[in-house]
Write a structure and sequence with these properties.
alpha/beta, two-stranded antiparallel sheet, Biotin synthase, iron ion binding, TIM Barrel, metal-binding, 2 iron, 2 sulfur cluster binding, 16% strand, binds iron/sulfur cluster
């Protein structure tokens, strides 16, 4: 086993390639041993009682050309979602101001596109610059990016770009056929090359096996630099979508995946993303103990429900958690 995955108090820094068999061994440890190991690594790299809070806004909803089987916004499925045009920059900034007042330190903006069109880039750049001027970190998810588009967003000061790999390479084509796993990795490489921090994770409960979950995390951990942010979503089955009837994931398997993400990527923020409304408070508490240290706040995530801020505030009080403060050099 690799040293940085073996020691419960390992700090980040060692970058030896991980094998699927090492990761499988860890994933299958007795649950208490796995959590002890993950929590030790978490504690060695982060304040275990601080959780980073992001707010997500859909700046262009629905009508997407991609066929992601889990998504309410794909034009391929009769999900009943009405498509909208790209939101006005002023409205985005006014929403961002409200998010800042609510305690969010990172503002994530998502557009349901295969990739951004050149005609939209001026507005996108204005959104990034405007949100940064409010003193928040910025994140965008706009689909596939070329090297040139990545450079333009980097020049605008974009902090993070989200582009999930969703699942393992093996299982990927069961979920999406309109673009490949390699396309996803190309966009992540373009973003990284431009100097933007990477946010990349996946979705659990799509019918994948434990091996697929492990493989997805090994792929992320073995990128030239692991993503700074790793969202772990739990599928919200969308009526009309390809995965409308997917069997829910066992919560213990979900927690195991969070723990493995923490162990394989010790310095990354691991985010509990979509699906928190279907998680008990106890399941979320286990995820925080296992190394999750980021959430989305607000009533909605793009088009999906999210626990309200009152519920999150009560849960944070019960668990003694606090919001992570933003540390920015400039
Ligand atoms: S996940 Fe993104 S790319 Fe895929 S269909 Fe939904 S909006 Fe489009």
């Amino acid at each position: 086993m690799q040293p940085h995955t073996d020691c419960p108090t390992a700090k980040s820094g060692n970058r030896e390639p991980l094998t699927a068999s090492d990761a499988t061994f860890i994933y299958n440890l007795p649950f208490s041993d796995l959590l002890f190991r993950a929590h030790g690594i978490h504690r060695a790299n982060f304040d275990p009682n601080a959780v980073q809070m992001s707010r997500l806004l859909s700046v262009k909803t629905g009508g997407c050309a991609e066929d992601c089987g889990y998504c309410s916004q794909s034009a391929h499925y009769p999900t009943g979602l009405k498509a909208s045009k790209l939101m006005e920059v002023d409205r985005v900034l006014s929403e961002a101001r409200k998010a800042r007042e609510g305690g969010a330190t990172r503002y994530c903006m998502g557009a349901a596109w295969r990739s951004p069109k050149d005609r939209d880039m001026d507005s996108i750049v204005a959104m990034v610059e405007g949100v940064r001027a409010l003193g928040m970190e910025t994140c965008m998810t706009l689909g596939m990016l070329t090297p040139q588009q990545s450079e333009r967003l980097a020049d605008a000061g974009l902090d993070y770009y989200n582009h999930n790999i969703d699942t393992s390479e093996r299982f990927y084509s069961e979920i999406i056929t309109s673009r490949t796993f390699a396309d996803r990795l190309d966009t992540l490489a373009n973003v990284r090359q431009a100097g933007i921090k990477v946010c990349a994770g996946g979705i659990l409960g799509m019918g994948e096996t434990a091996e697929d979950r492990i493989s997805m995390l090994v792929t992320l951990a073995n990128l030239p630099a692991p993503p700074e942010s790793v969202p772990i979503n739990m599928l919200i089955p969308i009526p009309g979508s390809k995965l409308a009837n997917a069997k829910p994931i066992d919560p213990i398997e979900f927690v195991r995946t969070v723990a493995l993400a923490r162990i394989l990527m010790p310095a990354s923020h691991v985010r509990l993303s979509a699906g928190r409304t279907d998680m008990s408070d106890e399941m979320q508490a286990l995820c925080f103990f296992a190394g999750a240290n980021s959430i989305f706040v607000g009533e909605t995530l793009l088009t999906a429900d999210n626990p309200g801020e009152d519920h999150d505030a009560a849960l944070f009080r019960r668990l003694g958690l606090k919001a992570e403060q933003l540390e920015r050099a400039e």
